[in-house]
Amino acid sequence: MDADGSNQRPLTDNDACDGAPFWSPDSTRIALTSAFDCNPDSREIVVMNADGSDQVKLTDNDVDDYLSSWSPDSQQIAFASDRDGNDEIYAMNADGSNPRRLTFNDAHDHMPAWSPDGTRIAFGSDHEGFRAIYVMDVDGNNLQKLSSTRAGENCPAWSPDGTRITFASWRDGDGEIYVMDADGGNLQQLTNNRFADEFPAWRPAVKVASSAEAAILGDTWIRPTDGLGNTPLRDR
Predict the structure, then answer these.
(1) Which residues, 6 or more positions from 59, have their beta carbon under 8 angstroms from its beta carbon?
(2) C-alpha angle with apex 137: 142 to 25, nearest 5 degrees?
(3) pLDDT at residue 90, rounded to an integer
(4) Using 50, 70 and 90 to split pLDDT, how confident is the model at 220?
């Protein structure tokens, strides 16, 4: 749809359950998660052109491959998969070739987010028994935990300049959006309501306006990162 919610049109039309779309940085393609039998435990990664044409299934197996993230140059895709017995972070070329495993533990690792400079990947993990935000190099090395609460945190998204990460947290009893520096410091809460706010995304940087603005896609609202005011793109 257009940015104001108008001109809505379907991009997929099949018997599968399609969701979690992500634009490629060059705006030419969309990666999504598709369950061809609507089985949530057997999803695949699909890529298509921005108009919905030329849909290609990049993964094809009986396990769960889901929640992808493009590299900044649109040449690679990170995703979560349980192909080796539990959910881990993987990466592959944008055509599905050269899949490789990046995390190796007994934790539930998912929701990868590629940094704008292409050097790191943030993700959610219950590596220490509770879900928190972690970051690692793109080869899986230099793992670092950025959040410390035991309440549960997920859905990391990098700012366009790579200096901050916004994410969802349940530290206050329900899902709210927070932002922090890329090293985990300077934590700030952005939303405070009775709804579950999840899956934040940053507006791309533009010359005429500040890049410090995040769109809360779960509720389809836009809120500046200082937490003041919000503008609905559609009525609740």
Answers:
(1) 44, 45, 65, 79, 81, 96, 99
(2) 160
(3) 98
(4) very low
- What architecture is the 106-236 domain classified under in CATH? 6 Propeller (2.120)
How far apart (Å, rounded) are the C-alpha atoms in residues 40 and 123? Answer: 20
Tell if the pTM clears 0.70, that is, is over it: yes
- pLDDT score for 208: 38
**Quick one: tokens of 82?**
């349980």
Query: In sequence order, what are the residues at sequence separation of 6 or more whose Cβ sits closer than 8 angstroms to the Cβ of residue 50?
Result: 23, 27, 28, 29, 30
Q: What is the pLDDT of residues 92-138, one digit of tens each?
A: 999 999 999 999 999 999 999 999 999 999 999 998 888 999 999 99
CB 228 within 8 Å of CB 218: no
CATH 2.120.10.30 domain position(s) in the chain: 106-236
